[in-house]
Amino acid sequence: MKLNRYGFALRLGGLAVILLAVACSASPTPIPAAPAAPAARPAPRPPEVATVSPTAIAASQPTPAATESPRTSGSAEDAAAGGESLFSWDFQEVDSGTKPAIALSSDDVPHIAYMLEDLNGFVKSATRTDSGWQLDTIAEGYFYGPLDIGIGPDDVQQVAYHDHQGATFQPNKGDAVLAKKSNGKWTLEAIFDAGHDGWDTRIFVDSDSRAHLSAIDPMEFGGDGVEYYSQDETGAWTVENVGSGELTYKWATSVAVGPDGVPYVTYYDQKKNDLVLASKIDGAWQLETVDSAGDTGLFSSVLVDEQGGVHISYMKQESASSGTVMYAVKGPSDDAWKIDEIGGLDSLEFGFIGARNVTSLSLDGAGNPWIAYTDEKVVKLALWDGSQWQIEIVLDAGKDKLGQLVSLKLDSKDEPHITYFVVTSSRPLGGNIMYAKGTQK
């Protein structure tokens, strides 16, 4: 039986957040209150043993074909256990902050956006140079993440985040903001829309360097769910509700645009505990359930390949502290989704300062999927090599506590660039931004 995250406790939790935010306006050092305790989770399932190899995918076929029996037996991580490391890793500490996201410019230079969630918080950007990291302050104020960063063909950094309205907080205000760096200067554009918008913001920058955003207008503030933001050729914004219905924040959205210009948004349906894909076809939003097995669809990341195949990474929650990372793909001529289990996460913590974007998806030059995933103890990387999944342990945190958020991009050599953060304080959430670059052995 699936468990529903909604209910009376959640609505009380939403009211508590609103009252807290109002109280914070009179306090110089607010400490956010944790939301109501989550509903009881299903008991962990017994460990699965890999009995078959992952479904073969030809290296020349970027979009894996769906099969009549799409769900594999056992995880890719089980099948790949004991394999040799594929990369040598260079780790660098970038700056103090939390909830980073990474993008690469056309010359493969990494750019990392990150933030501090506090009344006296910030949004910053770090760019790798020959002498170290160049740090820019984009904005100062009261913001919430996760944020996201994208770079288009014009090599302009574009950062999207939620402006919480600072000391003048009002529940019916709050917006998504798009920051752009041009000629060495940052400009900020608030995307005004009714509601308290812009939570769990994600960005996709298209071939015309125009930004597309997905975000949540959450039920905690009377909102009506997942929204899609797009710009026309003049730069004017349109904000559309995709039809999700009321949702709370925390479980992520993701956005991508296909080669035919069709936008796709993924989210977690909290009424049914399913992964849902919204696509805008012929001017109308259509909703498709991608995966409904168990409590699934949290922390999704979506991309569309050059043939129009849709790829999604996400997590299935198994218990109050564990989950399974999943991968779903559907080609343009496929009738069904092919779904693989990638690997497990055993040190998860959920809640106000808990897990956020624990999966991050990228496609290599052949259209093959790579997935970074993380909890409080590890960062892992799964990649499809054309015939099977390869699993790499990027980092074992040891005594450190990781922030349960990861962001992955691949460069022109198909080498991975990853950012994550190490937690240094919990209230307010503080950390150190980390960068890892993998070089093929």
Query: So what's the overall shape?
Result: globular
Q: How would you state the average pLDDT, rounded?
A: 85
Please outline the major beta sheet: 4 strands, antiparallel
Task: Give the second-level CATH assignment, the architecture.
Answer: 6 Propeller
Spatial ordering of strands, largest sheet: 1-28-27-26
Q: What's the CATH topology name?
A: Neuraminidase
Global Rg: 20 Å
Let me know the number of strands. 28
SS-derived structural category = mainly beta
Helical fraction: under 10%
Task: Note the run of SSEs as H and E.
Answer: HHEEEEEEEEEEEEEEEEEEEEEEEEEEEE
Protein described:
This protein has 2 helices and 28 strands. With 441 residues, the chain is mainly β. A 4-stranded antiparallel beta sheet has the order 1-28-27-26, with no helix packed on it. It has a 4-stranded antiparallel beta sheet with strand order 2-3-4-5, with no helix packed on it. It is globular, with a radius of gyration of 20 Å.
Keywords, separated by commas or semicolons:
mainly beta, Neuraminidase, four-stranded antiparallel β-sheet, 441 residues
Task: Tell me briefly what this model is.
The protein has helices spanning 8-24, 76-80, and strands at residues 87-96, 98-104, 110-116, 121-129, 132-141, 143-151, 157-163, 175-182, 185-191, 199-205, 211-217, 225-231, 237-241, 253-257, 263-269, 274-281, 284-291, 295-304, 310-317, 323-330, 338-345, 359-363, 369-374, 378-384, 389-396, 407-410, 416-426, 429-440. By secondary structure, the chain is mainly beta.
